[in-house]
Specification:
The structure holds two protein chains of two kinds. Chain A is mostly helical. Chain A has helices spanning 3-24, 28-48, 52-77, 82-85, 91-113, 126-129, 132-139, 144-165. The radius of gyration of chain A is 21 Å and the shape is globular. Chain B is mainly α. Chain B is 78% helix and 0% strand. Chain B has three helices and no strands. In chain B, α1 (4-24) runs antiparallel to α2 (28-53) and α2 (28-53) runs antiparallel to α3 (57-87). The chains are: A mainly alpha, B mainly alpha. At the A-B interface, α1, α2, α3, α5 and α7 of A face α1, α2 and α3 of B.
Chain lengths: 171, 100
């Protein structure tokens, strides 16, 4: 096993472990911490794919911004006491497990046994494609219009979040 | 070298974990985290396809997915806060005011 494969399988196993642990935790704070571990490992996996810029942006945006927001909300809501966190599961849990394992088997069958996806080497252009220069060039030429549209999306999200979370004024 | 299949299998597993979380968990915040997990699984397969096929479109899509994820997290958590303010719970079984 080469060094590259070792890194990949280590990161992949930690990713799978943290995803499963996130689902099993009762306390949402622990779930959020496992999800942060998951995001760091995904960043490492992006590095093994030669996508350096995306790996950095991923860690900045997800681990730095989104998960801090999650932890902030969890602590703001103060869900500390255990009796509120008990989840009643029954038939629905078994149906959910059956549904998602069916989906998993389907996806594994598609990805594992279809021959057109069996490429074993990264494209020679992949090193260049991960750099900031290349991504910036494509983003500001070919994808300029969608890029501008995302600014509207973010503006709408900011206004919506402020309006929804604002305290109601006393009449 | 690691073949493309292994990245896709990992992505499929993460996506199924996210689906399981959305269907089974009742805590609204954990449901949200599971949605983030699904978005990340799709990001992983987009980047893997992009780098193995030598086409930058996949990486651009990842940026837009990140923007949507950030917007969704902000609005969703604001909804959770205002729900908690009104109903004192984040259990999605008890939030049924749209049901008749």
């Amino acid at each position: 096993m080469t060094f590259e494969q070792g890194v990949f399988y280590f990161l992949a196993s930690v990713t799978v472990f943290s995803a499963v642990m996130m689902l099993l935790q009762r306390n949402p704070v622990n779930s959020a911490l496992y999800l942060i571990l998951n995001f760091f490992c995904l960043g490492g996996l992006y590095l093994t794919l030669n996508a350096q810029f995306i790996a950095l942006v991923h860690i900045l945006v997800y681990a730095g911004a989104i998960m801090v927001l999650f932890l902030f909300v969890i602590m703001l809501l103060n869900l500390g006491d255990d009796k509120r966190l008990v989840e009643h599961l029954g038939l629905r849990m078994y149906l959910g497990i059956a549904f998602s394992s069916g989906l998993l088997i389907e996806l594994l069958y598609i990805f594992g046994f279809s021959s057109p996806m069996n490429i074993s080497e990264l494209s020679p252009a992949s090193v260049e494609m991960g750099t900031v220069e290349y991504i910036g060039k494509v983003l500001f030429t070919k994808f300029l219009f969608p890029f501008e549209i995302t600014s509207f999306l973010l503006l709408a999200a900011i206004i919506g979040a402020v309006l929804l979370a604002k305290k109601k004024l006393v009449q | 070298m690691i073949p493309l299949n292994h990245y896709l299998l990992l992505s499929a597993f993460l996506f199924s974990c996210g689906v399981l979380g959305v269907v089974v968990r009742r805590n609204a915040i954990v449901v949200f985290m599971s949605i983030e997990l699904m978005l990340n699984a799709v990001n992983l397969s987009l980047i893997a396809f992009s780098q193995f096929l030598g086409d930058a479109t996949g990486q651009m899509l990842v940026f837009f997915v990140m923007v949507v994820a950030a917007a969704e997290a902000a609005v969703g958590l604001a909804i959770i806060i205002s729900l908690f303010r009104n109903k004192q719970t984040v259990n999605i079984d008890e939030i049924n005011i749209l049901k008749w």
